[in-house]
């Protein structure tokens, strides 16, 4: 229906010109005028067939000595339809036929002096019709590919955001675990000691309770920092709320010693530059290892912490010399050891935790300096 209306409109556009300049053979001219546009009715379902019929009728008008400008326009419309709705092979056929027609028209109607210019002009018109048709055919596929690419990028962004959120939740879960287990372990040890010392040494008991209260407030402050990170927007949230680093190890050791676990600390080599995240990872590893010693080792146990810095490695080692308070089989890898292993894996390091041959427990992590954000 639409193509029929289009063909009729083109036919009517040519009527005034034909009426103002009637051909020498009016009946033949009017019949050819109508016949040139009738094939355009099926220019979409059978574009090459429509083009061939129009081209044949255009040739017929030349053979009978008629010059119908609207006939040339019909040829261009038919060529455009082949380019827009048919295959490349059929388009090449139609383009070749068009160029033959251009050559014949130039030779027949244009003076020799102006033939080159006329040929270039007419060839440019057929080329323009072809290019417009090809663009019309490929544009939907191009737009579809852009939409598909945009949808794929959107899915990739969503997936990356989910992965980042999962990693952030895992990191926060590790922080919460480390804060809660360490602080509660120290507070339990201090309050147990206070209860034991209360009858005979109330001053020492009061000091232990005060120390436990201070540990609790520190834990609350750290938890508030973690929760502020959860509520904050943007990638710099953690930078605005700094976490513990190597500079706070002495305070950690003081808390552990106050809870009844002797700690020996030793550093070998010169510390390299490290990111705050790397320092936090080492701090949490030491904190969790000492917490596990407090929870699992028998009374009288002592712990040793060693940080070793060398050109090709950074070592973190925490050992204790005590036997487990219960059966050794009960000291199984839990969330704490899993969290330590994950922290080490983030920086491409090696991790091991297990019993020592002569009793006690050893936690060992090894990093390459470059993976921690600095050089030795």
UniProtKB/TrEMBL annotation:
Residue ranges occupied by any DUF7134 domain in the UniProt entry: 2-139
Keyword Zinc: no
Keyword Cell membrane: no
Domain annotation Histidine kinase/HSP90-like ATPase: ranges: 278-368
Signal transduction histidine kinase subgroup 3 dimerisation and phosphoacceptor domain mapped to chain residues: 168-233
EC number: 2.7.13.3
GO cellular component, one term: membrane
TM regions (residue ranges): 50-79, 91-110
Catalytic activity: ATP + protein L-histidine = ADP + protein N-phospho-L-histidine
Protein name (Swiss-Prot/TrEMBL): histidine kinase
Pfam families recorded: DUF7134, HATPase_c, HisKA_3
InterPro entries: DUF7134, HATPase_C_sf, HATPase_dom, Sensor_HK_TwoCompSys, Sig_transdc_His_kin_sub3_dim/P
EC class: transferase
Gene3D superfamilies: 1.20.5.1930, Histidine kinase-like ATPase, C-terminal domain
GO molecular function: ATP binding; phosphorelay sensor kinase activity; protein dimerization activity
This protein's UniProt keywords: ATP-binding, Coiled coil, Kinase, Membrane, Nucleotide-binding, Phosphoprotein, Transferase, Transmembrane, Transmembrane helix, Two-component regulatory system
Coiled coil segments of this chain: 143-170
């Amino acid at each position: 229906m639409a193509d029929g209306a289009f063909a009729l409109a083109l036919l009517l556009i040519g009527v005034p010109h034909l009426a103002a300049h009637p051909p020498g053979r009016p009946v033949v001219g009017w019949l050819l005028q109508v016949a040139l546009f009738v094939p355009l009715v099926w220019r979409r379902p059978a574009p090459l067939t429509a083009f061939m019929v129009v081209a044949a009728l255009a040739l017929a008008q030349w053979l009978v000595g008629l010059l119908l400008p609207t006939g040339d326009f019909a040829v261009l419309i038919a060529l455009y339809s082949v380019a827009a709705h048919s295959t490349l092979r059929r388009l090449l056929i139609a383009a070749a036929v068009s160029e033959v027609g251009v050559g014949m028209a130039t030779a027949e109607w244009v003076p020799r002096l102006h033939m080159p210019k006329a040929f270039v002009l007419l060839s440019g018109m057929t080329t323009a019709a072809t290019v417009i048709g090809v663009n019309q055919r490929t544009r939907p596929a191009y737009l579809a590919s852009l939409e598909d690419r945009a949808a794929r990028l959107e899915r990739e962004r969503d997936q990356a955001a989910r992965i980042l959120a999962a990693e952030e939740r895992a990191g926060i879960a590790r922080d919460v675990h480390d804060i809660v287990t360490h602080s509660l372990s120290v507070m339990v040890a201090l309050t147990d000691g206070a209860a034991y010392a209360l009858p005979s040494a109330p001053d020492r008991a009061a000091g232990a309770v005060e120390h436990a209260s201070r540990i609790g407030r520190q834990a609350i402050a750290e938890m508030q920092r973690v929760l502020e990170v959860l509520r904050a927007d943007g990638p710099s949230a953690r930078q605005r709320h700094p976490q513990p680093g190597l500079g706070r190890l002495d305070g950690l050791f003081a808390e552990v010693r106050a809870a009844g676990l002797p700690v020996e600390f030793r550093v070998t080599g010169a510390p390299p530059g490290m990111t705050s995240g790397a320092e936090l990872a080492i701090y949490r590893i030491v904190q969790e290892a000492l917490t596990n010693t407090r929870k699992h080792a028998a009374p009288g146990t002592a712990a040793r912490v060693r940080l070793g810095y060398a050109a090709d490695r950074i070592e973190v080692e925490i050992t204790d010399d005590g036997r487990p308070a219960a059966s050794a089989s009960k000291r199984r890898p839990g969330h704490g050891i899993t969290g330590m292993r994950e922290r080490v894996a983030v920086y491409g390091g090696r991790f091991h935790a297990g019993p020592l041959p002569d009793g006690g427990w050893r936690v060992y992590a090894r990093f390459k300096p470059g993976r921690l954000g600095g050089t030795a």
